[in-house]
Amino acid sequence: MNKIILMGRLTKDPEIRYSQSETPMPIARYSIAVDKQYKRDDGITADFFNLVAFDKQAAFVEKYLKKGVKILVSGKVQTGSYEKNGVRIPFFEVVVQEQEFAESKNAAQNMSQNTVQAGSKGYSIDEDGFMRVPDDADDELPFN
Questions:
Q1: For residues 54 and 27, is the Cβ–Cβ distance under 8 A?
Q2: 94 closest CA partner among 37, 34, 29, 25
Q3: How many angstroms separate the CA atoms of 128 and 95, rounded?
Q4: pTM of this prediction?
Q5: What is the rounded average pLDDT of the residues 108-132?
Q6: Where do the domains of the chain lie?
Q7: Which of the listed CATH numbers 3.40.190.10, 1.20.140.10, 1.10.10.10, 2.40.50.140 matches domain 4-103?
Q8: Among 15-29, 74-88, 121-135, where is mean pLDDT lowest?
Q9: Degrees to nearest 5, angle at CA 57 with 51 and 63
Q10: 91 with 82: CB under 8 angstroms?
Q11: How large is the C-alpha radius of gyration of the chain?
Q12: Helix, strand, or coil here: 58?
C-alpha cells in the first residue's frame, strides 16, 4: 500500500501549469512544511514535502491555496529520477489524491492580521511571515 497523509502550511504560492493536450488539464506544484513532533539538535523544526496535483485537485489549488494556508493532504508517494549535466538526480514527491483546509477561514485571517499588527508596531516581518525580534529585546522578555 502506498498512502501518505500530511498536514502543513504552504511554503510559497503554488505553481500552476496546463498540459498541452486537446483539453488542457491544470497541474499544480507546491510544497508544504510539516512541523516535527520534536525539535532536533540541529534546530530543524519541520520537514518539507513537494506536492503535485492534477485536474480537479489542481483547480482547487489554483482557486484557494496560497502561501501560509494550512492544509491536510492524502496521496501517494512517487519517486523517480532525471538526468542533469550527465548526473542522475533522484526525486520524491507526493501525488495529491485528496486535500482540504486544516483550519478555519477565521483562524487563517487572524494569523495574517497578527502579522500585520506586528508590522505596525515597528517589528519587521521576514519573507516567511515570521517576526524578527530586535537585538535589544532581551530587556523586554519575561525569561532569560
A1: yes
A2: 29
A3: 25
A4: 0.69
A5: 56
A6: 4-103, 104-144
A7: 2.40.50.140
A8: 121-135
A9: 100
A10: yes
A11: 19
A12: helix
Assigned C-alpha cell, 95 = 501525488
Residues ≥6 apart with Cβ < 8 Å to 40: none
* 31, three cell numbers: 510544497
- Quote the CA–CA distance of 44 and 82 in Å, as a whole number: 28
Other CB atoms within a 10 A radius of the CB of residue 73 amount to 23
| Mean pLDDT across the chain | 83
Report pLDDT for 22. Answer: 92
Q: How confident is the model at residue 94 (pLDDT cuts 50, 70, 90)?
A: very high
Please choose, from the candidates 50, 140, 144, the residue with its C-alpha nearest in 3D space to the C-alpha of residue 90.
Answer: 50
Amino acid at 32: I
- Report yes or no: 76 and 94 within 8 Å, Cβ to Cβ: yes
